[in-house]
Specification:
The structure is a homodimer.
Chain A (H helix, E strand, L loop, with lengths): L1 E2 L5 E8 L10 H12 L8 E5 H7 L3 E3 L7 H10 L3 H9 L1 E8 L2 E6 L4 E3 L12 E3 L5 H16 L4 E8 L8 E8 L4 E3 L15 E3 H13 L8 E5 L24
Chain lengths: ~260, ~260
Amino acid sequence: MRTGKGGARRVEIVGLRLPMVREGDDLAQLIVRAAEESGAGIEDGDVIVVSQVIVSKAEGRVVPLDAFEPSEAARSLAERTGKDPRHVEAILREAVEVVRVRGEVIITETRHGFVCANSGVDLSNVGEGMVSLLPAEPDLSARRIREGIRRLTGKEVAVVVADSHGRPFRRGAVNVAIGSSGIEPLLDLRGRPDLYGRPLRSKQICVVDELASAAELVMGNADEGIPAAIVRGYPYRRSEEGVRAVIRPREEDLFR
Amino acid sequence: MRTGKGGARRVEIVGLRLPMVREGDDLAQLIVRAAEESGAGIEDGDVIVVSQVIVSKAEGRVVPLDAFEPSEAARSLAERTGKDPRHVEAILREAVEVVRVRGEVIITETRHGFVCANSGVDLSNVGEGMVSLLPAEPDLSARRIREGIRRLTGKEVAVVVADSHGRPFRRGAVNVAIGSSGIEPLLDLRGRPDLYGRPLRSKQICVVDELASAAELVMGNADEGIPAAIVRGYPYRRSEEGVRAVIRPREEDLFR
């Protein structure tokens, strides 16, 4: 934690400009180099937030649409939603359940357990005729990047893989964490004293989602090529637990 | 927007330590003073994120539990959920609809249109025997603080009033915006080119929610007395539209 004059707590977020990522690229290396070029470098305790799309690219999860031969179900859903049948086929293959369909929107539960639009299968930022699928195991992707950074720099950081999700009740998407490593994803304040010394009863904060959202303040627009960020000065608890712990089991969910 | 070495985009978040807020306090004044004490001051283009609880306190929206004489409906729901019947009465009076009930959780739609736990009526951080209700018009609360800061400093800032909301599908709460002033709440990227020059088809980002989440990285724990933060270096569009624009109308919502 950094404190300035008057003991103020400060957090700094630095956007990292990376070259176009290709399959097989070493993201840890690209991130460390970009951090040096930014002047920020990498420090112990940094949280590195990485956009899903470059993780998918590096891991070979960007594939030609033509690889998805549409089933009958995909063709029918494509007609209903106005989507490319190959895109719908990819969405269905990545899903364990179609949760809602309306207009051109298909909400699914992915194999990881995320409830999101299109199983996270995206046509943007990947070039004509291609689709990006979510990383197969985003917590593992985060761990690999973290270990790579440790190997290259000797620094102990946390890594969050972020993707943009829509939400019920509120318009607009926000960045959330789909994978993490080296950080406790949920901060449990229950039992801590409130301002008046009474124990807090029900406060559990999803800090990895807040970090993902914070990082978007510098990553922002798709066309700027800033797919990663350093969040510096945020005091987190180390943990080997990943975003898997954030997924609310269906039986615990009031809106499924 | 700030850029460092190598043109990196940087955002800084500074927590503001305020004295205990009381009804009638001038939040703009307290914030300006805390900003000076932190060494950060106030600059044009800052986003000031303010926690709901101090806005409610300043506006006299923290009231004795005893003011809520429980109706029959409140008593019955209190029994079902194990809550104080007066708390439930306050929840019901602030709600236009009870959306879900399970265990001790009551999800309502508030008079503002927010779908959240307990109509945002909170027993924490307000002292024994008291409850805090959400500000009656949080966009207006934000505007008043913004205008107060302009009067005191001559600086043009944006203000976001933030509260902690749980979400479907994901565990843990995150800070979201319940009021805003001086900033376009939703950033519409639709039609902008992606990395390959193809137009983005469906990207609309709720930047006020991301700012609220980012600010919690420094506001954090209830017992630390950091109920406000400055987000500096984030390039936003000015607007007189508030968070009202973020509320998804029921008929547009797939999960109502």
